[in-house]
Amino acid sequence: MTDWELISSQIQRAMAAVEDAHMVSQALRDEPTPEKLTKFQKKMGELARELDNIEYFLEHEDMVFSDDVSDVLSEIFTGKPAPYRKTHRS
Prior knowledge:
Strand content: under 5%
Distance between the termini: 9 Å
C-alpha cells in the first residue's frame, strides 16, 4: 500500500467515524438516555483514535516510509517482513 493509499484510507475511516458520531449525537439530542450517552462516548473515542492515526502518520511520515521500504526489502530477501519497525504497522 502506498503512502497515498494509506492516508486516503485513514481519511475515509475518519470520515465514516465522523458520520457515525454525528448520527449518535443526533439521537442523544433527540432523547437523552444513559445508553445513548455511552454509545456517543464510544463513537467519539473511535473518532479520536482515527484522527490520532492520521496525525501520527503525518508527523512521522519519513519513519513510516523508511519502515515500509525495510519491509519490502526484507520480503524480497527473506520472504518475511522486517522483524523490527520504528513505527506501528498499518
